[in-house]
DNA sequence: TTTTGTATTGTTAACGGTAACATTACCACA
DNA sequence: TGTGGTAATGTTACCGTTAACAATACAAAA
């Protein structure tokens, strides 16, 4: 019953030629005589031939697939990065193979091995820290690799990202400029980029002689976590008049919690997020946020890889993309 | 310079055995003598050997990868489906290959061909309509295929989904029960499932002697589209006192637009969404919505495929999952 | 010592395309 | 009639791993 799928040989047998002729017809019909063309096409249709990349991958070690390794697939932040990557790769005929590692280095190592075992032609990573084994694999794989998200990464790879620390510092300073004083930072995941944002926040607070307070958890950020943090902060630090969140989800969750409690935003408490998702820029009040060029980041990374695939060797290079501080309505007016 | 990656042969040469011995060591170290084990491991580490699945895929036509075909990757709805699928497949050692086709049948055909050309072991689809060529490929591929999202699909495949029509009908009826009368439907994309929801909405309106009004577009839904639709509806149908949206994004966008205009929700206008995203269930006011079991759907689909992969033939079967009408605060209290 | 068994390693072939080279057929032209 | 050229098709080998089978070595049993 499990009729296995037809091969070129099956098609060739049906027509009465060798599979080489069928192969030629598929890739370049001109090379085949008029008499055969129709017959071969008919046979292909009749058998429902499906191309098979495995032999080509085996003999040329080229899969025409690009591996993309992200911490999380469900996080909106990365959705936009993916969109950017695909916008560039797809027209070039490359398939994107997505994998995620849930912010764990060990899982990342496994995922790198998996993607490479499928002979991806190139890799896009989103962390600078890898296990030694992962590093060795990346070196040995002989494929272009690029890292995204963090322009301050110490990675030896070609890097495209933003300066999270300075972005957080600027946003914090903006909140301070707007009159907020007791600003608390809401963190989650505690990955490298979050730590950098915390650092930027602390720098700005210290520079203004203010005291830093960081709420943190290793679990994922969510609307409900933002709400939970807000409740806690209000009882632990009743004089809090500002919240800066490591991403928009937390900020929006916190904002809703304020609305439920009848707290005025921004009058009583200012709230800012990070990344500038659609919703942040549509909601009422407009959320103050750091708009990051996520799609652009993906697009540039993909373009760089394409160059690498066309032979140009990818030189170690750091491209820092600009972010944008959006004041919104959720922090006080100047 | 482009040192290509080490093969089993390279490792074997280094140790002074045949690649077969190395292959055995990798898959089952017990089969190799004590004396060799260390040597082989050392050689593997030294060369940074990366397994290569291509030969295996070629000879066994098994890639240990599952293809998942979705209309859109960035849509939150599918993010949860993916999470469910991976939650089941990953522990079993299967890699998920995601592809999206932007709601186009032609693109879907291409994506099916691509995924099959990589020898995916099974496929999860999310549409019931395919091009004839795509259908033929699916038949010939000889891999388990399952369809998700729509339990009323006429597809000949094994189907796991919900009844969109009845869900929309129920939600509309709920809004009517709560006192809303001039309810307008906000649609987007106009794919099969949206059409079914529109149908359900119309049924409920008709059953109550009310007039249906549908705002529609072929473009993607978004917060801004919801806001735009609301503006238009208010001028075209000033007596509108209810909005039912094909998904939460539109609903939230419409709700924000109401807040901006100072319209009272739900007193002056009731708003309901579809799918029950996190944010809908955290926001103020709580959004009335149809909560759909998206993660569960993915999980069940993956489980069914696993069974199919373990030899049990997948019998054509329709599994209808329950949805849940959540009244929220964005429609009037009873 | 010879036989038998077992543990370990080696050898061969196969998977399905395609590059590279070989062959065939047919026509034009000398 | 034979020669050369070209268009069309055929043949062979290869990519890296592993299943299946073969061979070897060495220890235990006869």
TrEMBL record, chains A, B:
Residues 6-60 form the HTH lacI-type domain. InterPro entries: HTH_LacI, Lambda_DNA-bd_dom_sf, Peripla_BP/Lac1_sug-bd_dom, Peripla_BP_I. The keyword Transcription regulation applies. The keyword Transcription regulation applies. Keywords: DNA-binding, Repressor, Transcription, Transcription regulation. It holds the Pfam family LacI. One of its GO terms (cellular component) is cytoplasm. GO terms for molecular function: DNA-binding transcription factor activity; transcription cis-regulatory region binding. This is HTH-type transcriptional regulator GntR. The lineage of its organism: Bacteria, Pseudomonadati, Pseudomonadota, Gammaproteobacteria, Oceanospirillales. The gene is gntR.
């Amino acid at each position: 019953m499990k009729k296995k799928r037809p091969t070129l040989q099956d098609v060739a047998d049906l027509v009465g030629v060798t599979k080489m002729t069928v192969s030629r017809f598929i890739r370049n019909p001109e090379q085949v005589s008029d008499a055969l063309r129709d017959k071969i096409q008919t046979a292909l249709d009749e058998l429902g031939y499906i191309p098979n990349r495995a032999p080509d991958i085996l003999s040329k070690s080229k899969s025409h697939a690009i591996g993309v390794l992200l911490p999380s697939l469900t996080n909106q932040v990365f959705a936009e990065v993916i969109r950017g990557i695909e916008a560039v790769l797809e027209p070039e005929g490359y398939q994107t193979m997505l994998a995620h590692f849930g912010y764990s280095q060990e899982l990342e190592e496994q995922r790198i091995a998996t993607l490479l075992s499928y002979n991806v032609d190139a890799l896009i990573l989103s962390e600078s820290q890898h296990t030694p084994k992962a590093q060795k694999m990346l070196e040995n794989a002989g494929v272009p690799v690029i890292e995204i998200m963090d322009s301050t990464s110490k990675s030896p790879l070609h890097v495209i990202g933003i300066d999270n620390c300075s972005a957080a510092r600027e946003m914090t300073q903006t909140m301070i400029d707007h009159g907020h004083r007791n600003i608390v930072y809401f963190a989650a995941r505690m990955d490298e980029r979050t730590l950098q944002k915390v650092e930027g926040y602390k720098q700005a607070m210290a520079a203004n002689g203010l005291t830093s307070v960081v709420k943190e958890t290793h679990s994922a950020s969510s609307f409900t976590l933002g709400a939970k943090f807000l409740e806690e902060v209000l009882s632990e630090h009743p004089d809090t008049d500002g919240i800066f969140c490591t991403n928009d989800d937390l900020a929006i969750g916190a904002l809703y919690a304020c609305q439920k409690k009848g707290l005025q935003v921004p009058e009583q408490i200012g709230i800012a997020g990070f990344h500038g998702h659609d919703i942040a820029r549509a909601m009422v009040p407009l959320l103050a946020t750091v708009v990051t060029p996520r799609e652009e980041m993906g697009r540039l990374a993909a373009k760089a890889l394409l160059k690498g695939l066309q032979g140009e060797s990818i030189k170690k290079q750091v491209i820092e993309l600009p972010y944008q501080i959006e004041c919104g309505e959720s922090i006080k007016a100047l």
